Amino acid sequence: MSLPDGNAPIRNEPSMITDLPEIVMIGLNHTSAPVDLRECLAFSTAETEQALKVLKKDADIRELLILSTCNRVEFLLTSHRPEGAIAAVKTFISEAKSIPATRFESAIYTYRADEAVRHMFRVAASLDSMIVGEPQILGQIKAAYKVAVETKGTGVIVNRLLHKAFSVAKRVRSETGIGDRAVSISYAAVELARKIFGELDDKTVLLVGAGEMAELAVEHLHRNRRTGSLFVANRTFEIGVNLARRFNGTAIRFEEISETLKIADIIISSTGSPDYVIFSGMVRPIIKMRKNRPLFFIDIAVPRDIEPAINRLNNAYVYDIDDLHGVIDENIASRQSESVKAERIIDEAVIRFRQWYDSLNTVPTIIELRNKLTTIAETELAKTVGSMPDLSADDRRALARMTESMVNKMLHDPMRFLKDPGSHRDRSLYLDITRKIFNLEDE
Amino acid sequence: MNLWFIPVVACYLASSAAYGGYLFVQKNRFHQAGYALMLVGFLLHTVVVLAEGFMSGHIPVQNLHETLSFAAWVLAGVFVLIRWRTRLKILGVLAAPFITLITTAALMVPDKEVEIQTSFSSLWLILHVVVIFIGYASLALACGTGILYLIQERSIKGKKHRFFYRRLPSLELLDNTGYSFIVIGFTALTVGLITGFVYAQAVWGRFWSWDPKEVWSGITWLIYAALLHERLVAGWRGRRAAILAIIGFAAMMFTFLGVNFLLEGHHNEFTRW
């Protein structure tokens, strides 16, 4: 491609080429941090909003998204000074959660540029999940993205990255068998229940809280038994009533949990409560009243709902989200080939995202814009000249000069603006808009 | 020593090997082979026991060799019968080696003639011995199931889902099976004790003579009675029931063997060499 003359001055300004902020991912997940650390660092929706507001004020952070689920706490951001931004996030976590940075330092990973993009895609596609292929994570990311957008935390790069992440996740789901095997928390939980109870048909289930994950577990449990009753306890009684209706169960009030434990065999808990909901002292007398019939607690919540000490009581078994991981380990091998396919889809998406990201640089955008206008001008010129055979060579040159200078004049102001949109403005936004307006996406 | 005894032990040994293979490979044909070998061993063993009985004219429990052999025979019989009725395939992994162990022990101890003063041909005595041994066998299997329960409970509680977790059945099944073994064993033990009293009354003129074996039988019986009582009333199940089944079995083993070696009494002449 021969560059038009107008590019020369731009090339002389190297700062223009590296003007894009870098994409950074800082966080911890179920592989890097144990559940007790994750529950210490988890952010509720309100806390997330607060965190977004505080961190957005940091000079080093341009765009920010916070994803906090049971299995991960991650900060996706863009920054011109990534080191400063990373340090700012760590300091913020330490202050907001009032724990020394040394406690979580080793659990934190940071990814930058392509690696950050890849990580985001893998998380969205549920490849980085504790239970690979579980479907809940996409909804959680969408919710996190919504919060970030509402607090104006995101800009063009994070927006694009997230939209791409959603479409990658969709592709992975539809083109690979990763989600098919019902490999989820619920699957693991049912398997365990079978090892404890043998038959599940006559077992009573108590659902505490109404998380998406817990609902899936109940659904799965229902598919694996013919009879057996279900109780739903929720802090908001109405939600519990609706959920109970869906599963043909009975809604109970939160205060009735301890009474219901006398008849329930399997307890699935996923409340948003920061403290334990069911305590060892509460269960101990109940086990006696139950004549030692076993109790199986499945704790899907982070922070945990069920006091871990209950596991030490006779005939009571407690599995939290980390423990369930162990049950599924076996199935990982069989999914390996599907993961390979999924990773390939992600590799492709990362490369395409990289191309788009690079195009956000001023130089390529201006080159493409100029090329596009020049091509149009030259095509039209050739058409016009072709229909006028009487023109002399001089006339043709004059027309060519005219169209060229028209292109240059038209490009002058936009180019100047794109080179320096003003110190407070987000250049990537205008570059992105320019590319959209002039349809520069598909070269 | 009876030469017929060697193929019996060989069958039991092969059965143990097949069950061992089943534990590792988890292929159905392994436990099927184990069961078939156990059945063949039991049938051969039956021939040996009957031959011994007919040759001597009374029930073959006159010395330690015969008693051990008889115990193993009854255990094999109970196992064959029970395995046919329950789904507990994995039980053979414990039962087959245990039967092999007893028969091997029987092979090791000298099979010498013992002077017997008391009559061994009484119907009451035969009933007493057979029923008691069936009780022992069931309670041995209850102990085995208890051990399996503790292993499985440990792997579920400890959240280590490795080797045994996948191989052992559900806690509920283990608990229920162990419970049935104890019910059968306890019933047999009770009947055995009663027939023993009747026999004692007939021979010595009194039901109970504070013989050490009698005392220890009483202790064993009380342990199992307590276990059953607690299960029915307070709902003792799971871990505690499993531990008590193992303790009860230990007491029973002491009644069976220990008493004869360590203490004096009128059962001595049957089991001492």
Give a description of the structure.
With 443 residues, chain A is an alpha/beta fold. Chain A has 18 helices and 10 strands. In chain A, α13 links the parallel β8 and β9. In chain A, α6 crosses α8 (156-175) and α9 crosses α14 (321-332). Chain A is elongated, with a radius of gyration of 29 Å. Residues 1-17 of chain A have low confidence and may be disordered. Chain B is 78% helix and 0% strand. Chain B has helices at residues 5-25, 28-56, 64-85, 92-108, 123-157, 163-167, 171-204, 212-233, 239-262, 268-271. Chain B is globular and about 60 Å long. Chain B starts with a helix and ends with a helix. The chains are: A alpha/beta (443), B mainly alpha (273). At the A-B interface, α9 and α14 of A face α5 and α7 of B.
The number of E-state strands of chain A comes to 10
**Fraction of residues in β-strands of chain B:** under 5%
The largest β sheet of chain B comes out as: none
The total number of structural domains of chain B is 2
Reading off the top of the CATH hierarchy, the class of the largest domain in chain A is best stated as Alpha Beta
CATH topology of the largest domain in chain A, anyone? Beta Polymerase, domain 2
- Helical content class of chain B: over 70%
Name given to the CATH homologous superfamily of the largest domain in chain A: Glutamyl-tRNA reductase, N-terminal domain
Give start-end ranges of low-pLDDT stretches of chain A. Answer: 1-17
Described by strand count, sense and barrel closure, the largest sheet of chain A is: 6 strands, parallel
